[in-house]
Amino acid sequence: MSTVINTTNAPAPIGPYSQAVLAGNLLFVSGQIAFHPQTGELQLQSIDAETRQVMDNVKAILTEAGLDLSAVVKTSIFLKDMGNFAEVNEIYGSYFTSNFPARETIQVAALPKNVNVEISVIAYKA
């Protein structure tokens, strides 16, 4: 059995998917891009601003599920340009303080809405 998780504090899906799905004790959060949830505008002023908005969207979905970033066990980061890795890594790292999740970072040819970064996570609900 699974439960769909949705919140107005993160952007609405732009396709046929849910913001997150809780299956057993695992929460699968769909890839987030830098849409501001209240304005619907992409936050593309800088890679820093873009990454912060993505991480804030992830946090909002986790919060709706009763979790926080400490519950994240796995992340996937998709970058349009691996040249942005250091900046994205610095912002991403500021959201985690200990017990860092497993992660991969992958350069891709393109991302939805021509953004520069997309991040998905898997969290464990004890």
TrEMBL record:
One example GO MF annotation: deaminase activity
Recorded GO CC terms: cytosol
Entry superkingdom: Bacteria
Family classification: Belongs to the RutC family.
PANTHER family per the UniProt record, alphabetical: 2-IMINOBUTANOATE/2-IMINOPROPANOATE DEAMINASE RIDA, 2-IMINOBUTANOATE_2-IMINOPROPANOATE DEAMINASE
Protein name listed in UniProt: RidA family protein
